Amino acid sequence: MPSVSDAHRAVVLAGPTAVGKGTVAAHIRDHHHEVWLSVSMTTRPPRPGEVDGVHYHFVTVEAFERLISRGELLEWALVHGRNWYGTPRQPVLDALAAGRMALLEIDLQGARQVRQTLPEALFVFLAPPSWEELVDRLVGRGTEDEAERERRLATARVELAAQAEFDVTIVNDDVRRAADELVSLMRTP
Ligand code: 5GP
Description:
Rossmann fold
């Protein structure tokens, strides 16, 4: 198990849907090589340009269930009621044992589980610059019908309310600025 000296070396980044967690994490992957990024397991199919083992480990539902039953996931969740996502446990523990700064970019349900399994981690909430900005990002394209739009907004309201559960909030007003703030937080003991 990680020791007390690992405190704040593990950072969990979560936040509402469409706030840009993935973009901030990708910026850190590309520009801050001192940070080790957890590669999640997912049952969703790869998008164009996504590389197995880099962006995600793409697995079948059967393989995902096997990982759960063997206790190999630190946390897992069904995201948007569609696909399973989970954090492989051992690579996180290995990275921390090697003294690396480890970043887990996961959804809110996963973050709540990590609170139980890795309580010494720092929990960071990525917030939109404003409610209007989040609404724009969520429904901006206007391709959804009214019911879907309402469903997304209701989810966003609940997700924003989770902010109080977190240790720190970072506002995603600019990807590079938010990423730099996150990395400097990781460096702070
Ligand atoms: P996407 O499919 O767009 O890459 O990610 C969808 C959502 O899944 C995002 O909110 C992302 O934070 C979340 N996610 C990615 N990996 C994990 C994981 O390992 N565990 C959990 N709980 N959520 C994850």
